[in-house]
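This week, work through this protein record:
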Amino acid sequence: MAKRHTRPARPMQRDTDPYQEVPDPINTWRYGWLIRPGSIWIGAHWSPANKRMCINLLPCLTLWVVMPGGFAPCKVS
């Protein structure tokens, strides 16, 4: 039986500040769009915690709508 070779795991990357600032909720209806290469699915989902509806009509293109008291999606770098 052949010996299996694996590479060592990368160390976990930690943020410099473990207590990241939470943004203030939005007070009016807001909408926008994001291009995210990782969002290759098509469909919609509702987030009751963020009071936000996200819709992917095309792969990697997300349209979002936020109700008052909700949070807009953050950009992923």
